[in-house]
Amino acid sequence: MEENIYRKARKNAASKNSLLNNCESAQDIVYIERTKLLAIESGDKIPGPDDVVSMAKVYEAPELCNYYCTNQCPIGKGKPTLIYEDLNEISVRLMTSLHMLQKANDTIYRILEDGKIDDYEKMDFLNVIETLKKLSYSADSLELWGKKNGLI
After folding, report:
1. At 76, is the pLDDT very low, low, confident or very high (cuts 50, 70, 90)?
2. In this predicted structure, what is the pLDDT of residue 2?
3. Which pick of 36, 47, 106, 151 has the fewest CB atoms within 10 Å?
4. Concatenated DSSP letters of 76-114
5. Beta-carbon-side half-sphere exposure of residue 18 (alpha carbons within 13 Å)
């Protein structure tokens, strides 16, 4: 059976806390009943938000929250899932996004100066939205990095 993200996170955390080696002892730390935890880890049950928050905290795996929100929650499904990256990778993407933001700023002033978006301005508007999404993703990646490294 391929391990899902929740099982992998528990097993990784077990290297620091042996009580997380199995669901029997982990249930007392994450406050999720053993059979439910097993069902979550086997993919038979989607965890609730409170379960994910508890696992993320105990396992020191903040990426679980983003995974849940972007893959399992009906509201956030479809948003990009963050992948833990090296700080250098995040920095390059963030600097690129910030550079593109200046161009987006100029574009948004130009297309909104008359208070409406005409058909010929629509593509420019969509490009501004894409630039902002990239910046948002970079900011979220940097926040995840900070959480994983105990800065937040």
Report:
1. confident
2. 58
3. 151
4. TTTSPPP----HHHHHHHHHHHHHHHHHHHHHHHHHHTT
5. 0
**Residue 77 near residue 40, CB atoms below 8 Å:** no
Residue closest to 136 by CA, chosen among 70, 50, 72: 70
Burial class (CB in 10 A: 0-12, 13-18, 19+), 2: exposed
* DSSP 8-class letter at 17: -
Which two three-digit tokens encode residue 82? 């963050």
Burial of 36 (0-12, 13-18, 19+ CB in 10 A): middle
- Sorting pLDDT into bands at 50, 70 and 90, what band is 1? very low
Of 9, 119, 132, 150, the residue nearest 68 (C-alpha): 9
For residue 126, the model assigns a pLDDT of 94
Tokens 């409406």 identify what position? 116
Which of helix, strand or coil describes residue 51? helix
Does 9 score more than 50 pLDDT? Answer: yes
CA distances to 7, 31, 66 from 74, in Å: 22, 24, 13
Instruction: Answer whether residue 78 shows pLDDT above 90.
Output: no
